[in-house]
Recover the amino acids of this structure.
């Protein structure tokens, strides 16, 4: 059975009201991204347990598009917040921001930097260029 989080929504709203709007948006996106990642892993594991009959096998294209479909399903599920995972992560991050010190946003900044690096790596893969030909270095 799915839950909507441990804290009542009024307490979560109170936490949200104590954090600036820009930080709230970053926290919400981070929570949804994590839940999406988790749900993507779950969907991939579920898809791998289904036996292929060979009768109507789509081959490599089925694998590629199935993976893309799972990614979209996981994004959709995380945005609807039915599992409560994103809510709990958001609550935790909001609570940490309410009692924060000025240097406490480093975790979110690191998350954003990681997201940018992942996007840059994906762009390199799609363009077919090598990392050595770029004017900047991508951290591992």
């Amino acid at each position: 059975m799915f839950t909507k989080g441990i804290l009542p929504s009024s307490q979560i709203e109170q936490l949200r009201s104590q954090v600036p709007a820009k930080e709230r948006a970053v926290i919400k996106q981070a929570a949804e991204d994590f839940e999406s990642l988790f749900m993507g892993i779950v969907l991939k594991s579920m898809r791998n347990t289904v036996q292929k009959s060979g009768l109507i096998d789509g081959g490599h294209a089925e694998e590629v598009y199935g993976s893309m479909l799972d990614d979209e399903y996981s994004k959709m599920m995380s945005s609807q917040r039915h599992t409560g995972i994103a809510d709990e992560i958001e609550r935790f991050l909001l609570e940490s921001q309410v009692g924060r010190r000025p240097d406490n946003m480093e975790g979110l900044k690191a998350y954003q930097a990681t997201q940018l690096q992942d996007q840059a790596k994906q762009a390199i893969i799609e363009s077919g260029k090598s990392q050595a030909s770029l004017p900047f270095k991508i951290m591992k």
